[in-house]
Amino acid sequence: MSRPDLPMLSSCTALLRRVPFTCAFLAVMLAANGLAGTFSGHIDQSVLAARGIGVEALRDGDLSRFVSAIVLSHDLPMLLRQLPFAALVIGRAEWLWGTWRAAGLFFAVDVMATLVLLAAVAQVPALATLAETTDVGMSLGGFGVIGVLIATWRHRVPAVIAILALVAVKYALAPEPLADAGHVIALTLGFCLGLGRAYIPGLEKAADIAHQDPSHRWAGRQAAERRARRPAAPCQQDGQQ
Q1: Which residues does the annotated region (Disordered) include (predicted)?
Q2: DSSP secondary-structure letter at 232?
Q3: Could you tell me how far CA 163 lies from the centroid of its own chain?
Q4: DSSP secondary structure string, 93-141?
Q5: For residue 36, which of 17, 19, 47, 171 is within the disulfide window of CB 3.0 to 4.6 Å?
Q6: Quick one: which of 156, 139, 12 has its CA closest to 72?
């Protein structure tokens, strides 16, 4: 006799197989922050100085900071916010576009937004006070992916304006100049990439089917597979009562 929880387990396994990059990214975030001491409350300051990103931090020429900073968080509350944020945003992108395309877009937008932000800090005198700030977090890549996703929507312009308004409200209540500016830059870059998705291999076709809920298609396939596994009912003889 089959166990009733096996179909649910099989469904969860099938879901996870669709988003391997998301699962791996979350696992790396947990491991990296565990090693950095974030679970104790705050990231170890020596780790922040060695692996964070910033204008002054990059003077050592270590470009691996672009990657290491993405998977770290300043403190435990930030980590607890970023874990579901990464799961939802990156997971949705991977489900729609595939593993390599979603991972490439995520890292590309994060790095581009970081470079634009750091260049502005280094060149604009009014931002000079931020040059010594060393930051970590995956939110720039996340906001970039949100921008790409929004660009595929029918009401894309009101949606991006609404998110920018939320960033402004957040800045008014709890200002983080470097991070908040980075979110605006990343969202804008992602939105522009999404508008030009015809020039990104495979993204245009993926964006077309993004308007259909993939969970419905997946559920339909699962139902069809279950029906196919059921034993066929014996046919009744003609004339049999």
Answers
A1: 214-241
A2: P
A3: 16
A4: HHHHH-HHHHHHHHHHHHHHHHHHHHHHHHH-GGGGGGTT--B--SHHH
A5: 47
A6: 139
Residues 6 or more apart whose Cβ sits within 8 Å of residue 102: 21, 22, 90, 93, 94, 96, 145
Which tokens hold the place of 54?
A: 């910033």
One-letter amino acid identity for 164? L
CA atoms within 13 A on the CB side of 27: 7
pLDDT in the model for residue 190: 94
All residue ranges of the chain with pLDDT < 50 are 1-2, 209-218, 235-241
The structural domains of the chain, ordered by start, are 7-212 (1.20.1540.10)
Q: What is the pLDDT of residue 1?
A: 44
pLDDT at 209: 47
